[in-house]
Specification:
The protein is of the alpha+beta class. The chain contains 18 helices and ten strands. A hairpin with an 8-residue loop joins strand 6 (263-269) and strand 7 (278-283). It is globular, with a radius of gyration of 25 Å.
């Protein structure tokens, strides 16, 4: 027997043995990570036959089917009509394990996805129904709703707020649509603004659901959204008169945004004859629409971004102009690093000087949603660090001591003892430096 054939047989045997060592659940996760989604789901269905009362299998079935329906490429048979089956899987996971935080998270994500589809249909009643459903299922825990309130309260009147993901967008939408809280703010997920239907939706608005945003594009232009040929270009953005006064800027001053391309093809291209060929660069639909919304609204409405985006490339360089307001950042007309405009102290103090803003925080330990709890658990102390740095630089010893007391009383709950002690050590080190 020749050597290549022996190697092939040995490989087949080792793969077979390895597969036998893995449970069906483990094999399904392996297939999912390799983007073999249908194979993963088939393995889970087989696992369910062996263990019909395994909450984790139902959770994975809900999650993987949710991913197939909305997050992978378009797949035959997976669309919003499949949502009922996804709900059944997640319902069963929660029935078997009422404290299954990640199953509840995906339940809220599914509710949010279907609610977004009803926005597409301009059906305000159905949008509200799905957010209320998420709340009734316990998929929007009180600590997250409290955090969403603090997001919205950190924004000025009539603001535009870009959310970083499902968790911050869905909770803000629930508060606005179901509790009629801060409906003056237009909240949108930054990842969705590359979809023509959604750009049309935010341009039109929907009473009781979304306050419309000015977009100076025709419907034909919106429906034709696509990647655009682009090289880095500075775009001048008009600013408001109030910003001119606040920042001491001249009448002809504009925000100068160097908008860089964020897509690249393998195609070699020269723009003019004789120029050396380089790879074609493109402006993604998402960045193109972010530019459009900022360009059309910045002079009229304050613009904010939640400090929860997992990837700052979404901002396209705008974060150089951010003023940190605690849980959100405000877009300013000037670059803020190492300036007096880097931090809005009044907003941070407004957040941390009223302990009622954290009444529900402690519940995060008993009602943990591992996929999103970190947004809240780390979000508050990182904002608190910003204020502590300001007090340290300003030599405000009493105020810094108050922050330490607040953290110990409100936020030290033994959820992650190592990190909580790190926060306390850092704050107390600053205080000792001031007391020298």
């Amino acid at each position: 027997m020749n050597k290549p054939l022996l190697l092939l047989i040995a490989t087949i045997i080792s793969v077979t043995v390895f597969s036998q060592e893995l449970s069906l659940k483990e094999q399904a996760l392996k297939e999912f990570k390799s983007e073999h989604y249908n194979e993963a789901i088939i393995l889970l269905e087989q696992a369910l036959e062996q263990s019909p009362d395994d909450a984790e299998i139902y959770y994975y079935l809900g999650w993987f089917n949710h991913y197939n329906a909305y997050d992978s490429r378009p797949l035959k048979g997976y669309d919003f009509a499949f949502s009922e089956q996804i709900f059944k899987f997640l319902d069963k996971a929660i029935e078997l394990n009422p404290n299954y935080g990640d199953a509840k998270y995906f339940y809220s994500a599914e509710c949010g996805s279907v609610a977004m589809n009803e926005m597409r249909n301009y059906n305000a009643e159905k949008v509200k129904y799905y957010y209320e459903l998420a709340f009734k299922k316990g998929a929007l825990p009180d600590w997250l709703i409290e955090y969403g309130r603090n997001y919205l309260m950190s924004c000025s009147e009539n603001a535009i707020l870009f959310a970083g993901g499902d968790a911050d967008f869905n909770v803000c939408s629930y508060l606005q649509i179901c509790e009629n809280f801060r409906t003056d703010i237009s909240v949108m997920p930054i990842a969705y603004i590359d979809r023509p239907w959604y750009v049309n939706f935010i341009k039109n608005g929907l009473k009781g659901v979304f306050k419309k945003v000015n977009i100076e594009l025709t419907e034909m232009q919106i429906m034709d959204i696509r990647p655009y040929k682009w090289r880095e270009t500075t775009v001048d953005i008009e600013i408001s008169q109030s910003d001119r006064l606040k920042f001491g800027l001249s009448e002809d001053f504009k925000l100068e945004w160097a908008v860089a391309p964020d897509l690249q093809s393998w195609r070699m291209h020269s723009k003019v004859e004789g120029e050396e060929k380089t790879r074609r660069t493109l402006l993604s639909p998402q960045r193109a629409m972010l530019l459009q919304i900022v360009e059309d609204n910045f002079a009229e409405r304050p613009i904010y971004f939640t400090n929860a985006a997992p990837d700052t490339t979404f901002y396209g360089g705008l974060n150089e102009y951010f003023q940190n307001c605690g849980l959100v950042s405000k877009l300013t007309p000037v670059k803020t690093k190492d300036t007096e405009y880097q931090l809005d102290v009044s907003k941070l103090e407004q957040l941390f000087k009223d302990e009622k803003n954290f009444n529900c925080y402690r519940n995060i330990k008993e009602n943990n949603f591992p996929r999103i709890s970190g947004v809240v658990f780390y979000g508050y102390p990182f904002a608190l660090f910003r204020l502590a740095d300001y007090y340290f630089i300003s030599k405000k010893e009493h105020e810094l001591q108050q922050l330490i007391d607040l953290y110990k009383n409100q936020f030290k709950i033994d959820f992650n003892t190592e990190f909580e002690q790190y926060v306390i050590d850092e704050l107390e080190t600053k205080l000792k430096e001031l007391q020298k």
